[in-house]
Write a sequence for this structure.
């Protein structure tokens, strides 16, 4: 399911990994095209994310201003 969402799921995956869950690490590896290794530790995943997250976050559009 997480893979179907795509890279937009990365912040949530990292949050789970940061809480000690290791099951999402292979999904993180797949979504980052192997930049995060499948056998990475939770700490390595979180550290990688903290360094690279700006390259992977999907920007939200600015809220539109109401007509004045």
């Amino acid at each position: 399911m997480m893979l179907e969402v795509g890279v937009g799921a990365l912040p949530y995956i990292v949050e789970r990994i940061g809480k000690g869950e290791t099951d999402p690490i292979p999904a993180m590896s797949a979504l980052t095209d192997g930049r995060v290794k499948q056998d990475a530790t939770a700490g390595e995943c979180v550290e990688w994310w903290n360094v690279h997250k700006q390259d992977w976050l999907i920007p939200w559009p600015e809220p539109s201003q109401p007509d004045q």
